[in-house]
Amino acid sequence: MTFSTFLNFLFPPPPSLFITTMSVITCVSLANAGINEVRGKHLNYSKFWNVENNNGDKKKKKMIKLSSKSGMLLLYTPAFVAGAASFLVFPDDGFRSLVLQGAVTFHFFKRVFEVLFVHKYSGSMALETAIPITLSYFLSSATLIYAQHLTSNLPEPSIDLLYPGIALFLVGVTGNFYHHYLLSKLRGKGEKEYKIPKGGLFDFVICPHYLFEIIGFYGFSFISQTLYSFSFAIGTTFYLLGRSYATREWYLSKFDDFPKNVKAIIPFWF
């Protein structure tokens, strides 16, 4: 596919230095975070909250720590508020913008709902890990919606991906929620230890929830069809590929009976 063909899927980039800069920064920083995960330099949350990175860093012993539940609420709530507030800030940008605003808001509402009522937590989260992730989610959500706002007077892309984007988003959000639900069922009341997940796509990959999250983010990009939305989806893909690889390595190190045929995120391949 030539670059000119790719442009058929995008709105003309608006003359905004902010959006152009954010497109580059978001993609590069997320991809770099994914590479760091593969190298063993993890963001300290979930099962990696207390894992020493391979640079021998001991600082986390002096870190301010939040409970995982509080940390996850901190991560997702500002992005949810940004999505909800966008209906007031940009009320008349057309149907495509309305769909994107709804998708972003619902995505983070689902995350907050899962934190409160679905997930079962056992660890902590370092505040210095929570703050940059919170800012990343908030800025990404706000920038997705703002970039869409800037297209309100621009000609539509010659290839319309709005409805395929809605379908991708619905598949992604549904599959992600279902596999989060399966994870929550692994622990009984009061249990904190990790177990090998079963059921759904867990029989093929250890991180199907990440796979569906990627699908959902490409749903955003297809709905939006802006340069920033695709940059965000590509960067997120690299990060979650790296995180899922690290997760599989963690399970292999903790469980002698972990099935070797279960891949990281893409069935039968990776």
From TrEMBL:
Gene Ontology MF annotations: oxidoreductase activity; oxidoreductase activity, acting on the CH-CH group of donors
Places the protein is found: Membrane
Membrane-crossing residue ranges in chain numbering: 16-35, 70-89, 125-149, 161-179, 226-246
Residue intervals of the 3-oxo-5-alpha-steroid 4-dehydrogenase C-terminal domain: 161-270
Gene Ontology terms: biological process: lipid metabolic process
Any one GO cellular component localisation term in the record: membrane
InterPro entries on file: 3-oxo-5_a-steroid_4-DH_C, SRD5A/TECR
Record keywords, A-Z: Membrane, Transmembrane, Transmembrane helix
Membrane topology: Multi-pass membrane protein
Family label: Belongs to the steroid 5-alpha reductase family.
Protein name per UniProt: 3-oxo-5-alpha-steroid 4-dehydrogenase family protein
Originating organism: Medicago truncatula
